[in-house]
Structure formats: C-alpha cells, structure tokens
Amino acid sequence: MTIADYDAVIDLMKQTPGVSFRDADSRESTARYLQRNPGLSFVCQVDRQVVGCIMSGHDGRRGYLQHLVVLPTHRRKGIANALVESCLSELERLGILKSHIDVFKTNALASSYWESQGWKLRSDIHRYSLVRSGGENA
After folding, report:
1. Order of strands, edge to edge, in the sheet holding 49-58?
2. Main-chain phi, psi angles of 24, to 5 degrees
3. Do 56 and 64 contact (CB within 8 A), yes or no?
4. Helical (H) or strand (E) element with 46
5. How many CB atoms lie within 10 A of CB 87?
6. Is the separation of the CB atoms in 39 and 76 below 8 Å?
7. pTM of the complete model
8. pLDDT averaged over the chain?
9. d(CA 93, CA 103)
C-alpha cells in the first residue's frame, strides 16, 4: 500500500460495516503511518480496483494489524488470508513474532474471522485510551 491508494482504501473502509473511520485516518496521518512502517501495509487489486486492504506496523516488539477489509463481493476467495499473511511474514522478517488486532465488540463477523484463523481473544488485559486534544473521533 502506498499513499496513492489512500482514496480507494478509505472508500473501501467507509463502505464496510463494523470498520471505523477516524480523524487519525486522514491522508496526512496515513502517509506518516506508511512512512514509519514501510512495506507493512497491503492492498489487493482486481482489474485495477482495490478490493481489499490491511495496514500493519510495530513498536519494535509487537506487531499491530488494523483495517483488514475485503469487499463483500470478493470475500471467501483467500484475499483476507493473503493480506494477513503478507503482514505477518514481513513483521516476522523484522523479528516481530507476536501481533495484535483490535476488533469492535459489535463486529461479530470480524471476531469470527480472527478466531477461525487461530487468533486468541485476550481476557487478561483492558485497553485504555486517552484523547489529549481534538474530538471524540481522534
């Protein structure tokens, strides 16, 4: 994925129930994220149309996957699995062996997918967030 894919990826995200679009998903923030995590985010194109995407990065110890989205008309074809594998392979190449993904509790489809792929739901931690400035949609 490059910043040239931004408009297509954001359109895909906005069309997909259960996926949030936040201020942090702005073009500028996404460009910064891609620069900070080169070669770790991917799109899938069919006939020059972006039909799937995933973004990932790391903090030097753990990988973080986000925004796995595949158009409903292209699901069940292995696209999601290929996108995830691309991220995990590149993270592993960098020495990152454990990764996380956040899923909204209301997104049953995503939860089902991740569990079917062997990802384990953590019950031993809580995630806390703090917005220092800006609105609730930061």
Report:
1. 42-46, 49-58, 63-70, 99-101
2. -70, -10
3. yes
4. strand 42-46
5. 27
6. no
7. 0.92
8. 94
9. 25
